[in-house]
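Case study: 3-oxoacyl-ACP reductase.
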Amino acid sequence: MDYKNKTVWITGASSGIGKELAIQFAALGANVILSARSVDKLNELKQSLHGDGHLIVPLDLSAPEAVLAQVTDLLDTLPAIDILINNGGVSQRSLFLENEFNVYRQLMEVNYFGLIALTKAVAPTMVERRRGSIVSISSVAGKVGSKFRTGYSGSKYAVVGFMDCLRAELAEHNIHCLTICPGSIKTAIAHNSLNEQGIAQNKPEHSIENGMDVSVAAKKMIHAIHNKKDEVIVGKGLSGLAPTIKRFFPRLFNRLTAKTNYR
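Here is what the predicted structure looks like once written out:
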């Protein structure tokens, strides 16, 4: 795969999947636009990437209206976007009965409305050129639900639905739309997950610590982008098989998830 002179915009690029995607795309020759809240981390990543055509655009997805306005104003100064990867997001590990309502607002602002805002700004430029890929990172939790994830899963289900509709609408404009649903990937997502008060829980999770290596996951994602897939599951073990199990054995799956007691 050769991405020389292609521009790839990645949100959530300061860590985890986003950071690894940036590293691998840069190694394939792409110019990467790095977005996240932490400018220091983005600068550090930029300095480590192969090539010198990379840019930093700090974004706070929790303020989607500001993202839409900021990016719309910036587009004329940026190179044409070939691939937009909506990766930025936040997870949650807490029970519905214990959650403060604001937790749901936080999750939807970042995971759903922030994603829509950036896509809303960038998609018209792709339509005008009649080429480009819009990639959104949902989650296996966007295909199946489980305990402790009511807010996170709800926001990620919303991403899957949005992308299904967007794919149908943009097909006539030759725009590729891919939804990626990762399972358990070795990142800091569990540490950054919100508790019932909307504060990062700062503790590990067994399934994440034993999940797929992030470099392997990113490679699979790039392969799916290259092959213009519509939707892919990326994960190993139960986290990768969960959507299939629920599809064919829904009652069994529901009984198993009801017995889950770890966060």
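For the exam, be able to explain this: Residues 101-129 form the longest helix (29 residues).
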